[in-house]
Amino acid sequence: MVNQRAAEYGGTEPFPGGGRPRTAASRVGAAVTAAIVAVPFCGLGVAGWLAWGHGLDLADIVLAAVFYLVTALGVTVGFHRLLTHRSFTAAPALRVALAVAGSMSFEGAVIGWVATHRRHHAFTDRPGDPHSPYRYGTHLTGQLRGLAHAHVGWLLRDDPTPAERYAPDLVADRPMRMVSAAFPAWCALSLGLPFAVGWWLGGWPAALTALVWGGLVRVTALQHVTWSVNSLCHLVGNRPFSTRRHDRATNLWPLALVSLGESWHNMHHSDPTCARHGVDPRQVDISAGVIRGLERLGWATGVNWPDPDRLDARRNQGRRQRSAAPAGTRPVTAAVLQSPAV
Fold first, then answer.
1. How many other β-carbons are positioned within 10 Å of the β-carbon of residue 69?
2. CA 205 to each of CA 50, 56, 59, 186, 222: distance values in angstroms, whole numbers, following the listed order
3. Structure confidence by residue, pLDDT tens digits, 222-257
4. Which residue, 169, 220, 247, 276, is the most exposed by fewest CB within 10 angstroms?
5. Nearest CA among 240, 265, 249 for reference residue 342
6. Rounded CA gap, 20 and 18, in Å?
7. Is residue 240 within 8 Å of residue 315, measured between CB atoms?
8. What is the pLDDT of residue 23?
9. Number of other CB atoms surrounding residue 32 within 10 Å
């Protein structure tokens, strides 16, 4: 049924179907998800109060930056490029370490994350895509509603993705099952580690500020950067490379640094298994640099690096796609958001 709806989709109309009726279990799941989103976000208010009344300690900034980098790489290199798209092969210990680091981002258990993302690629911007900003159509009201849906609203819908269908390799992988089942513990560790470091540095006051900045604020920042790739990187930016029909993934350079290279999203959707997303000069892709370092250490093998001939072919195809696309199906491309390398 979903495949049929995707095949019949015209590119501008709202997706058919209104979702399933809520069950008690789905309501509980939505409440837990809402808490995972809202509680770290509340930390921003506490952080603002602390910064206003007491200033900002250098140790808190360093803690937030370090934990952001570690957990973000767990998502970008581990969850995304390694486990979802198999852009390279990792040593077993590294594979588990990246899965744990990604789990500490509060973005969901690893198997569910991978399954949902593979489903997104299977039905990008068509019926079946769990978080397309085009769900409610391409008119202004629909786009605004779709932006909210793609950013965070989709998390609260009763629209489960079967892991057995979309991530059978991870379901069959015992270490990944163990990491996935321990997701609550990784979340606790994600907040407990900065708290413990703060305690070691300066007792209770330092522990609490470290928890706020290195824990809650850092989690909130990474969540919303990741979700901005889901939402903004399908609505705003440029599309130099060809993608599948109705796939409107864009490159959005302002997010490149904080997303560690994930916002070169058009290139990623053009060649999903490629280990580097920022392929043009001056396109920052920290995740690809880390993979390159792991390759040199011998911890990552079989890395799928960009092929120049394939890039040129997809760039030329992309020009033809843009010239043929109906106006209502084109992402917004403001001059200020054009990549400086394009």
1. 16
2. 11, 13, 12, 24, 25
3. 999 999 999 999 999 999 999 998 999 999 999 999
4. 169
5. 240
6. 7
7. yes
8. 65
9. 11
